[in-house]
Amino acid sequence: MQVKTGRRVRALGSGALVLLLAGCAPLWQSPEPQDRQVGAGGLAHYRFTGRIAIQQPDGSESGRIQWQNDLQQQQVTLLSPLGSTVAQLDRNPSGIDLRLANQERFHAQDPEQLTAQVLGYPLPLEGLPWWVLGQAAPDEPARWQRDDHGQARALEQSGWRIEYLQWRPVGPQTLPGLLRLTHETLTIKLKIDQWVLGASLEDGAQPVTSP
Asked: What is the pTM of this model?
């Protein structure tokens, strides 16, 4: 399906809805981390679950995110605060496929353009698989800011600024637990609740999806 210019879908939940739900179960309340490693594969294969918050001049929204990374392929599921799937993105070298909860489907080559038109905000799926690991994407100029101990505090690349607000141990690795991404007037806050390293589609691990 062709993407129509100006199309916009509120993929997560409005700020008012999130505040209402927060009275029952705060979306950003941290559960106990259950990070683990699964066999071999290291950082080539990983998945994580967490929370995502979007802030723009015309409003904000929050929800949950599930991510499966398998070398050149990513599968991203966006969920409402109540846990229902609202959008699923599958990215590979041929482009990105996006499916909404009503089964409407879209395909494009540029993930930022597609997500901006359909979801209402761009998701940087070219760089995010690297940034979320605390790395710069290869073959693109990058500028780092580090603390006195050499730990990354912020990265600027491809028009985005990525701030690393929290790090935590995951097996022998130290990986981000909380990131803030900014691009022009857009802010994306990503809190990772659980890391799983070494889980790939090829070795039989199930992708992180919601029915």
From this structure: 0.80
